[in-house]
Amino acid sequence: MDMILITGGAGYIGSHTILNLIEKTDYKIIIFDNLENGHIETVNTLLEINSKRQRRADARIIFEKGDLRNIEDIENVFNKHSIDGVIHFAAFALVEESVKNPSKYYRNNIYGTLNLLDTMIKHNVKRIVFSSTCATYGNPQYTPINEKHPQNPINPYGYSKLAIERIMDDYDKAYGLKSIRLRYFNVAGADEKGRIGEWHEPETHLIPNILKANDVKTFTIFGNDYDTRDGTCIRDYVNVLDLAEAHRLAYEYLLEENKTDVFNIGTGEGYSVKEVFDACERVLKKKIPVEVKGRRAGDPAVLYADIGKVKNILNWKPERSLEDSIKSSYLYFCKNKK
Ligand code: UDP
Fold first, then answer.
1. What lines the ligand 1 site, CB under 6 Å?
2. pLDDT (tens digit, 9 = 90+) per residue, 47-57?
3. In this structure, how many other beta carbons lie within 10 angstroms of the beta carbon of residue 137?
4. Which atom of ligand 1 is nearest to the CA of 219?
5. What distance in angstroms lies between residue 276's CA and the mean position of ligand 1's atoms?
6. Among 328, 183, 314, 302, which residue's Cα sits nearest to residue 236?
7. Which of 55, 56, 186, 314 has a CA between 20 and 30 Å from the CA of residue 104?
8. pLDDT above 80 (res 214)
9. What would the mean pLDDT of 134-151 be, rounded to a whole number?
10. What residues make up the domain containing 114?
11. Which of 94, 134, 205, 212 to mutate to test the pocket of ligand 1 (most atoms within 8 A of CB)?
């Protein structure tokens, strides 16, 4: 059974993918994370969940603290463990911050990934599933967005992910590295038992901010003058457990087909900020304080995915609704309010 290195495994999407692998597979897992945005509590919860599932506490999951910007950190992990493949989440992922501090994004996301890829090639590991993003498309020329849509990112975050996609193509041609890039749209929700969830500091994302506003402050809608059905931005919110499943299928596709490819991961449906807000009020069964302020820089009006390709080739489809995502986010929020 393969041993998979999960970079960024202490973060939001990485940790839910590990949960999926614990529950559905026998892969051995090495979690690699610098804990800058990831949390040791999340790692401990995953270790605990795993130890409850198996009788012998063997080392099926191992945590290795390290930073991809230090090539020795990642070299040490490859020297110590016999890794067969990688799922690569570790990255900075805030658009606004990337505009203010591009150096941080290029150094970490691009340079860190180069260190990872070079170490992989050196150790003859040639399978990687990579977290890419719809931010590589930039302002949409048409919707729904398919994988053939031109990639013209409008911020350093999107550029950093696009650069990595191109590097992976070159590494395929030159060294035979096979990669599946999953271009995520918006991600929402949490483990349905509330054990792990979305934990960003500061929190900038829509659904956690609405749920928080219920208790502590007024929720702000960034702009209601867009050219959309109610004036607020439209996004495609895919559930994090569904997204985790897509990573498992992508890894298995690499094992079976050994082919480089790219897939959009969304639901194919767009919801406006106002519709998401209304759905949160329905789930919570109460009024949430809300105000409207100006647009946030860099937000396109409408983004949603064409997911025909991933349905056909990986046989993946979203199983959970927007309301499911809101419910699980709220459960996690209530359990971890402190
Ligand atoms: N948004 C908002 N108020 C918030 C957070 C987000 O109105 O407190 C809007 C944001 O302008 C965008 C949508 O919600 O149109 C989704 O934003 P988010 O930051 O969750 O994800 P992004 O689309 O930036 O990846």
1. 95, 186, 204-206, 209, 220-222, 233, 235, 273, 296, 299
2. 999 998 865 55
3. 24
4. 8
5. 11
6. 302
7. 186
8. no
9. 97
10. 3-188+238-266+307-314
11. 205
Residue of 27, 106, 137, 157 marked catalytic: 157
Return d(Cα 55, Cα 73) in angstroms, integer: 32
**C-alpha 206 to ligand 1 mean position (Å):** 5
Residue 212 domain-assigned (yes or no):
no
CATH of the domain at 10: 3.40.50.720
pTM above 0.85, yes or no: yes
Amino acid, single-letter form, for residue 47: L
Q: What average pLDDT does the segment 126-150 reach?
A: 97
- 75 CA from centroid of ligand 1 (Å): 37
Is 14 domain-assigned? yes
Average pLDDT over residues 233-245: 98
Establish if 334 belongs to a structural domain. no
- The closest alpha carbon to 12, from 189, 277, 156, 135, belongs to 189
CA–CA dist 58, 50 (Å, integer): 10
Domain count, the chain: 1
| Interstrand relation of 271-272 and 234-235 (parallel, antiparallel or unpaired) | antiparallel
Residue 159 is among the residues annotated as catalytic for this protein: no
